[in-house]
Write a structure and sequence with these properties.
This protein is mostly helical and about 400 residues long. It has one domain (about 5-185, about 205-405): Growth Hormone, Chain: A (Up-down Bundle). About 75% of the residues lie in helices and about 0% in strands. It contains 17 helices and two strands. It has helices spanning about 5-30, 35-40, 45-65, 75-95, 100-130, 135-165, 165-185, 205-210, 215-230, 235-245, 250-275, 280-300, 305-320, 325-330, 340-365, 375-395, 400-410; strands spanning about 365, 375. A two-stranded antiparallel sheet has the order 1-2. The chain is globular and about 60 Å long. It starts with 6 loop residues before the first helix and ends with a helix. The relative contact order is 0.17. Mean pLDDT is about 80; it is low at about 405-410.
């Protein structure tokens, strides 16, 4: 049963969760526009760079899957603070990496810690917010994507252009420490779910049991495919803009800034729309629309910088907007007593889908003798087909029976 909160307190906590997600998303996103600099600094090919992205995603997926065995056994506040601190240390390790191999290991450590944070944040939303308002609440937290695109990534790109590729990670360390201090003071104790704590001997069987529920499997497949489609495209945006269109690395910050400003407004609008019209309807609508900007991005003609900047306020809200109704839908799928474990497993599936997308995308894309990025168009067509599959499949993803949730309220 959600904890009763005043509207002001609820907004404060949601924005705190959004800032926590902001650091995780910026940590993941900032690698993308740094691709040209990292490829030059370490003399690596696009496939090797996508391998570094995959290392984060694979480890985040593994970590999220393991977290499903323990996330419901701890106070959510204490678990969030512990993982957030380890995540901050991983960014310090990234900033200080002397070689590409050390950087990959540091990214893996970041994935192991950051992959759990997303599941904890979504579990807290499930604990605090009633189901009928989770779409809007998810939209608030998902503005972390917008904040990362507006403030985090452009700032990181500019810092990297003037002070080296490591400077964005140092910035993340400082910002994460500030958010950690605020979270330690503001977040309430969140241990209501512990009254239903599963005996330790049943943890592993219950984890395996998550994958025996058809309702869960349908949701996991949707999550994995949805993330895979995005990661076929996103890691190679900056190399394509730099190599094919001649955009300067420092100018990429303007591109992400334009897209981020648009998502800042679209995220909450899509969240409210999902609450009113239904999460399935909104997911289908946004996902179908996203096919057009995906194909334009991967087959982009030679445009001036202002043309790219005008396109990104369409591309980024379309691609990120699919996740808002999907994430809100995921909070309704499990029984309340298994919400944390389910969302951890779901986060793991999403990260594994991201890793698979980045890896497969890297296999298709390469730099030719003239320095141009080729093979990107194939990724776009594959992403379009998979998006159509997700639009059809979302109809199979349904929430837990209402009576099951009602039965859980006395125990809560």
């Amino acid at each position: 049963m959600p904890i009763p909160l005043t509207p002001a307190r609820e907004r404060l906590l949601l924005w705190l969760l959004a800032l926590t997600q902001f650091t995780v998303i910026m940590d993941f996103m900032v690698m993308m526009p740094l691709a040209p600099q990292l490829m030059r600094a370490f003399s690596i090919e696009p496939a090797a760079f996508s391998g570094a992205v995959s290392a984060y995603a694979w480890c985040a997926g593994l970590s999220g899957l393991l977290a499903a065995t323990y996330i419901d056994r701890f106070d959510r506040k204490r678990l969030l603070l512990a993982m957030f601190l380890l995540f901050t240390l991983s960014n310090l390790a990234c900033a200080m990496a002397p070689t590409f191999h050390v950087l990959v290991l540091s990214r893996a450590f970041a994935g192991l810690t950051g992959g759990v944070l997303g599941a904890i944040v979504m579990a807290i939303i499930g604990d605090l917010i009633p189901p009928q308002r989770r779409g809007e609440a998810t939209g608030v937290v998902m503005t972390s994507f917008s904040l990362a695109a507006i403030a985090g990534v452009p700032t990181g790109v500019m810092l990297a252009a003037h002070f080296g590729w490591a400077s964005p990670f140092y910035l993340l360390v400082v910002f994460s420490l500030l958010i950690w201090l605020v979270a330690a003071r503001v977040l309430p104790t969140l241990d209501g779910h512990l009254s239903r704590k599963t005996p330790l001997s049943e943890v592993l069987p219950n984890l395996l049991g998550l994958f025996r529920v058809p309702r869960h499997l349908n949701a996991f497949l949707l999550s994995g495919v949805n993330m895979l489609t995005g990661m076929l495209i996103i890691p190679f945006i900056s190399p394509m803009l730099v190599n094919n269109l001649g955009v300067q690395p420092v100018q990429i910050s303007y591109v992400y800034l334009a897209g981020g400003l648009a998502t800042l407004f679209s995220a909450r609008l899509i969240g409210r729309w999902a609450d009113r019209a239904g999460k399935h309807v909104v997911y289908r609508s946004v996902a179908l629309f996203s096919i057009l900007p995906i194909l334009f991005m991967t087959h982009m003609p030679l445009l001036p910088l202002w043309g790219v900047i005008l396109f990104f306020p369409i591309f980024m809200p379309a691609l990120s907007g699919r996740n808002i109704p999907m994430q809100a839908l995921m909070t309704t799928v499990p029984d309340p007593s298994r919400r944390g474990a389910f969302l951890s497993a779901n986060s793991a599936i999403q990260q594994l889908g991201s890793g698979l997308g980045a890896m497969l995308g890297g296999l298709a894309v390469h730099v030719d003798a003239s320095g141009r990025l080729v093979g990107y168009g194939s990724n776009g067509w594959i992403a379009a087909v998979l998006t159509l599959l997700a639009v059809w499949w979302v109809g199979r993803v349904n929430g837990a029976p209402v009576q099951t949730q009602a039965q859980a309220r006395p125990a809560a």
